[in-house]
Amino acid sequence: MKILALDSSGLVASVALAEDDNLIAEYTIQYKKTHSQTLLPMLEEIRDMVELDLSTVDAIAVAAGPGSFTGLRIGSATAKGLAFAMEKPIVEVPTLEGLAYQMYGTDAVVCPIMDARRSQVYTGIYEFVYEENGYDMSVIKEQCASAFDEIAQELNRIGRKVIFVGDGIPVFKERMAEVMQVPYTLAPAHRNRQSAACIAALGSVYYAQGRFVSGAEHVPEYLRMSQAERERAQELQKITYRRMTPADVPFISKLEQETFSMPWSADSFLEMIDREDASYYVAERDGQLLGGCGVLMIAGEGNITNVVVAPEARNQGIGTAMLKHLMEEGSRAGLTAYTLEVRVSNAAAIHVYEKLGFVSEGIRPGFYEKPTEDAAIFWKR
Predict the structure, then answer these.
(1) What is the pTM assigned to this prediction?
(2) What are phi and psi of 186, to 5 degrees?
(3) Residue ranges in the chain modelled with pLDDT below 50
């Protein structure tokens, strides 16, 4: 079994090659250059030095997160690119498990801590249990984002000696001395950071257990939102939803005219908002209309007829948020399924619908005009 491993989850950039129980090569650097500058050259250096034929590799193991958002994206993109090019699977090794594996065979509890900023750490708790053929790493606490004091309380409750490992040690070293009530020690310099060799070793174990995915299926595990995502979420929390009124119709109708080749007229909206079997809503923030949506209710099923968002509010998750609100209200009204049509070329809208659990169940040929195009029929049941 031959495993090519990558780790770019933190400051350390690391590439390794392992075959069976042998580490063939490892290239690790912890210095200023970004991973986008170092990862592929390191891989090429290993390939050349050991005369590696990439077609002989069985799988690519990658530190799957958590960690640096940028670093994880670089490592993930590199792994996916290799997986597609080589037609090989990806073994997703949780970053904290890879760090804990540095302490293989210890009788202490292992607690990796990575600095997650904002007074938090990415962490988990692990132990090694001796079995007939060696040690198995057991998860006491799954990896998570946590305040350091919370994980310290958990370790004190377990009541065993602890080994800390990871780049969070310098940040929380003083706090450790204040709150830890059980004996603890810090991993030495050659074992206290991420290592592609450990990702390769643990990846080999997981590969043998059948724990791998395709390149298309692989996504990094961030554990928490990025700063941009947090800001977007905060903005979405400011949005309010209410029933569409006649006073809203000119704005929504104008949006339809500007957005679609087959827009609804103002009269159509006015007719629908008066019907008892229809529900139409608008989204607004700070008094400004952002968009609208509506559903026609037939025998317990909802036909979503309209979703439109103002140009300045697009790509902010508002359309998705409106649909979620629409379906939540529909469920309260007794709806158990939803359907809608969308142009087969509208990839952005289809992506949103699929994220919300809609599945394509058919095609209506030539349904749309200007230009003529098929409609994909989506259902969420």
Answers:
(1) 0.65
(2) -110, 140
(3) none
